[in-house]
Design goal:
By secondary structure, the chain is an alpha/beta fold. It has 18 helices and eight strands. The model has no long low-confidence stretch (mean pLDDT 97). The structure holds adenine and zinc ion. The site of adenine has 10 residues, from loops. One of its GO terms (molecular function) is zinc ion binding.
Length: 335
């Protein structure tokens, strides 16, 4: 088995990280206090209670119910900055060199927090991370699939200036998967593409939902990579396509265990992805809730796939850099 020191040194990229999912209990409660937010009675009321709850969720929806309550403590531009800056500092210590990070504007605009404020706070943290830590990053806004597609389209309109300027570099789709298939969002993706043809596209698919949601995300939404995507292994034709077109899956090992998608990391189809030449990266999803950041995810996979040698890890690392949305110059630096 490779050592944690070896994994630490690998130039790691993250492609599946929800900034709201980095809200640690030790920031959540101070922010609630700072902003005068009363958390609902059913929500844990102390760091210890919240940490205990974060240990296990029944499924994706059970997690999301807590997650959306937690985000209510984020109000001021400084809160969004503090959240993202804390994340960058933490992962700098874990050997992260490039991060493509999600946020959910609708979690905030539905509470009358303007999209501009959220985006500016996160953007400032990204700029500081590059300047002071050498971590490059891209912002990806996600549409909440449990919201009406019309609301999603309005959100894209609000984001127009940021999409035009490339400050928002990509579009994604997240939240409860199974009841909300990709076809509901075809017009939204078309609209976003019409604002900036260079906008990168991704979507959560095949986490709890079927392999068909993966192929539909590629065909109907024109996504160029897929978040989670692990249920693709149930469809041979789709697997061949992912390999042929080198569509990267952004796999989240600790998340999949905490949300009971699998019982153990060893049950993830990572060997099958490698054997089928389907590229994937390893990611932390919502690390404050799932018990570990990027290096912790790498280390858990190394522990449960002890037969993987340095060459296998070098291949995973290369796929992760090649599948990134940074420019070729940055890729060459990282390779
Ligand atoms: N939002 C935050 N984490 C998510 C996940 N794992 N799946 C869907 N939506 C999410
Ligand atoms: Zn996710």
């Amino acid at each position: 088995m490779v050592s944690r020191e070896f994994l630490q040194e690998l130039p790691k990229c993250e492609h599946h990280l929800h900034l709201e999912g980095t809200l640690e209990p030790d920031l959540l409660f101070p922010l609630a206090k700072r902003n005068g937010i009363t958390l609902p009675a059913e929500f844990p009321q102390s760091v210890a209670e919240l940490e205990a709850k974060y240990c296990q969720f029944r499924d994706l929806q059970d997690f999301l119910d807590y997650y959306y309550i937690g985000t209510n403590v984020l109000i001021e531009e400084q809160d969004f900055f503090d959240l993202a800056w804390a994340y960058f500092q933490r992962v700098h210590q874990q050997g992260l060199v490039h991060a493509e990070v999600f946020y959910d504007p609708q979690s905030h605009t539905t509470r009358s927090i303007p999209l501009e404020r959220v985006t500016r706070g996160f953007q400032r943290a990204c700029e500081r991370a590059e300047k002071e830590l050498g971590i490059t990053s891209k912002l990806i806004m996600c549409l909440l699939r449990h919201m009406e597609p019309e609301h999603c389209a309005e959100t894209i309109e609000q984001a127009r200036p940021f999409i035009e300027q490339g400050i928002i570099h990509g579009l994604g789709l997240d939240s409860a998967e199974k009841p909300f298939p990709p076809e509901l969002f075809v017009e939204c993706y078309e609209k976003a593409r019409s604002i900036n043809g260079d906008l990168k596209l991704t979507a959560h698919a095949g986490e709890e939902g079927p392999a068909r949601y993966v192929s539909d995300s590629l065909d109907l939404l024109q996504a160029s990579r897929i978040d989670h995507g692990i249920n693709s292994v149930h469809d041979d034709e789709l697997m061949q396509r992912l390999a042929r077109e080198q569509v990267m899956l952004t796999v989240c090992p600790l998340s999949n265990v905490k949300l009971q998608v699998v019982q153990r990391v060893a049950q993830l189809p990572l060997q099958k992805l490698l054997d089928s030449n389907v590229p994937f990266s390893l990611n932390s999803d919502d690390p404050a809730y799932f018990g570990g950041y990027i290096l912790d995810n790498y280390a858990k996979v190394a522990e449960e796939f002890p037969q993987w040698d340095h060459a296998v890890w070098a291949r995973i690392c290369r796929h992760s850099i090649e599948g990134s949305w940074c420019d070729d110059k940055r890729k060459t630096e990282l390779l």
